[in-house]
Amino acid sequence: MARMSPIGEIRRKNLETLIREFLTMEALAEKASTTSVYLSQIRNRAIDSKTGRPREMGTSMARRLEEAASKPRGWMDAEYHHVDAIMDLQGVPPPPPPDFSDRHEITQSEWQLLQDLRAVHEDDKAAIAAELRAKAEKYRAVTAEILGKLNGPRSKT
Fold first, then answer.
1. pLDDT of 21-74, one tens digit each?
2. How many Å apart are CA 15 and CA 32, to the nearest integer?
3. Distance in angstroms (rounded) separating the CA atoms of residues 91 and 115
């Protein structure tokens, strides 16, 4: 069986990271002006009918993905094993299913917040949750006050 080149394997692993960050392959493909079919072929090591070897990501596509994801030039070409190990130890959840973003039940930043909370020690979670609840209540109160002023007093009919 044909093997991928070391750079091809590194880029494929980093592609997985970007897919997790964008929540779906489709979202990443759209941002990078490519197709999810092409990214899927790279991800799944589809055999190129012309060469008989697994399809690999070229330099041009690697740079496009870096730009789309606001990563520094060359990011796709570097290994990040230590990051994967830390994420595994912290129990970072997998990305939400694709239909989450389709139904707009949770945004990417909300999902990131959940991931970050999981990385925090249990003793700190209650304090963070209490602070977040207090801020949310403050925003709700301000919003209600503004809406009350905008709507004015309501007359009874």
1. 888 899 999 999 999 999 999 999 899 899 998 899 999 999 999 999 988 889
2. 12
3. 9
